[in-house]
Design goal:
The protein is mostly helical. Helices cover about 55% and strands about 5% of the residues. Strands 1-3-2 form a three-stranded antiparallel beta sheet.
């Protein structure tokens, strides 16, 4: 099969997963800033791009995160990192799934990983996936806590939000199209910061002014 055929098949698979949404110039610029094109990554890593496309189509490596308007398949710079940690592509699925005790959850996370849609994380690993889930759950539950609205609660909330902010990239408008609405940054970072402003510094901690 020619490289053109593989690129077309991979593009078709990408659109099956993400829908057929146009990438704007701003979306293209975002993908270029945060991701790298598959061809360039493979050249740098000494890998065959067509073989990597086959692995993606076979469900052994994740699909690209973005398909730029010029057809470039945009992937994370650490695309091969987890497979290397696992001991190779053949060992990747078992290694990845072993990070979850529940087999159903492990299967769901493996499918999500292969979809290439974990664009909500700067680095996609089992530990960052789990940490992000824990942070989102804690942030969503925070308004229902007994001391909600107090200064101490607000500081705890912002600590959680800051942690999530450090894990997530900015996102782009294309993401809100393919996911059908607001993304986790919109709901758990921007909205929370707007709804519950960061408390003012404690005056008691201010340094005294000398005459």
């Amino acid at each position: 099969m020619s490289d053109t055929d593989l690129k077309e098949r991979l593009a078709d698979r990408f659109r099956e997963v993400n829908g057929d949404h146009p990438m704007t110039a701003a979306d293209d610029a975002y993908a270029t800033a945060w991701y790298t094109d598959l061809e360039g990554l493979c050249r740098a890593a000494g890998r065959d791009a067509d073989e990597v496309r086959r692995l993606m189509l076979e469900g052994r490596l994740p699909l690209p995160g973005y398909l730029r308007s010029d057809g470039a398949e945009m992937v994370p710079a650490d695309l091969f990192g987890l497979a290397d940690q696992a001991g190779g592509v053949d060992a990747l699925e078992g290694w990845f799934r072993a990070h979850w005790d529940d087999e159903t959850t492990a299967g769901q996370e493996w499918s999500a990983y292969l979809s290439g849609q974990y664009v909500c994380l700067r680095s996609v690993t089992p530990s960052t996936i789990q940490y992000k889930d824990a942070l989102v759950a804690a942030i969503e539950a925070a308004p229902g806590e007994p001391d909600a609205g107090t200064p101490a609660w607000t500081r705890r909330l912002h600590a959680l939000v800051d942690e999530l902010d450090a894990l997530e990239p900015p996102f782009t408008a294309y993401d809100r199209l393919r996911f059908g609405g607001p993304v986790s940054r919109d709901l758990c970072i921007d909205a929370m910061r707007a709804r519950y402003p960061r408390p003012a510094p404690d005056p008691a901690g201010a340094r005294p002014v000398r005459a």
